[in-house]
Amino acid sequence: MHRPAILFLTSGLSSFVEGDLRMLKASYPVRVVATGGGPTGNFGQRLSLVHSILSGVLRTDIVFAWFAHNHSYLAVMAVRLLRKKSLVVVGGYEVANEPEIGYGALLDPAMAGKVRYIIENADCILAVSEFSRREILAVAEPRRIETIYNGIDTSLFSPEGSKENIVLTVCLVSTANIRVKGLDTFMDAARQIPEARFVLISRALDGALEILKRDAPANVEFVGAVGQAELIGWYRRAKVYCQLSYRESFGVALAEAMSCECVPVVTDRGALPEVAGDTGFVVPYADTHVTADAISQALVADTGSAARKRICELFSREQREQELRRIIATLQL
Predict the structure, then answer these.
(1) What CATH number does domain 164-314 carry, 3.40.1350.10, 3.40.309.10, 3.40.50.2000, 1.10.10.10?
(2) Can you give the residue ranges of the Glycosyltransferase subfamily 4-like N-terminal domain (predicted)?
(3) DSSP alpha helices (H): ranges in the chain?
(4) Which residues contact 209 (CB under 8 A, 6 or more apart)?
(5) What is the value of pTM for the model shown?
(6) Domain segments of the chain: what residues?
(7) pLDDT tens readout for residues 131-145
(8) Are 66 and 28 in contact (CB under 8 A)?
C-alpha cells in the first residue's frame, strides 16, 4: 500500500505530541510545521507561517494536526480546496467553555467560530477521552469522530524499588491556574496529614510558586522543572499521585504516575475518573476534608499494581499507535 506523506502540524511539541510525531516518522514520510499557536508576530512572520502551512498541504497527502487552533483552521480550509485529507486531534481547551475560571477557546466568539469550522470540516476529529468526545459533539457535528486515548510508554514509566510515604502532584503552575489545578486543596490536605511528604513538581510561569510557598505547611516540598529521568524517579518513589483539577481532558501525568504504580486520588471532573477507574479514589473538586481522607486511605491502599494494569490495558503507547495507523489507512481509501 502507498505510504501517504503527512504534514504534522502543531502549536507546540509537548511530550505526548512528540510521541505521535516519533510514531509517524517511523512509518510515513513526514513534514513538520510547529506554529506556536497560529498567525502571530509581525506581518512577515505571519506570511511565512501561512506559506509553510500551504506549501506543506500541497506537498503531502494527509494533514495530522494537534489542537483545533488557528493553524488547523488554515490547514483544514486548504485541505478542502486541494482535496487532501485532514485529521485533527482536539486537546480539550479548544472545546472548553468555563467562564467561572476564564478557561476555554469558546469564550472567544471569533475562536469559537474557527473551532466549529474545524470540527465540521476535518475528515476526522480525534478525541483524547470520552469526556472530550462529548464536549466536541456539544460544539458541532463532525464528519467523523474517534476516541483514541493518549498513550503512555509503559516500559519507560514502570515501577522500580519500594514506595515511600510521598504524595505527589505534577503540573505547570501560574497565578491564574492555582485553583484550576487544585493546588490550594493539595496544600490544605497536606496540613491535615503532617506525617506524609507532599511534593509539587512544577515549572512556574510567573510568581505562582512564591504565592504557594508563603502559606505552605512544612511537609510540602517544591521541586522545580525536572527532566524525564528525575520525574520517573519521583513517580517510582511516590505512593500516591493527586490530580485535583477543576477539569482535565485526559491527564497525562496522572496516567504516567499510575503506570509507575502510584495510587491515584482525582477529582470527579473531566476525564480524570475515566483514567483512574476503580484503582484509586475520586473526590469532589475543592473538598479539602474528603480529599485529605482519600489521601490517607490511598497511603495504605494496595491498588498500585491495579493502577498500572489499567494503564497497560487501556492507555498504552502501542494501542495509540495501532489506532492512529488504522485511521490513517482509512483516510487513504
Answers:
(1) 3.40.50.2000
(2) 45-155
(3) 15-27, 43-59, 70-82, 109-121, 130-139, 183-192, 208-215, 228-237, 252-259, 272-276, 288-299, 304-314, 317-332
(4) 173, 202, 222
(5) 0.93
(6) 6-151+316-332, 164-314
(7) 999 999 999 999 999
(8) no
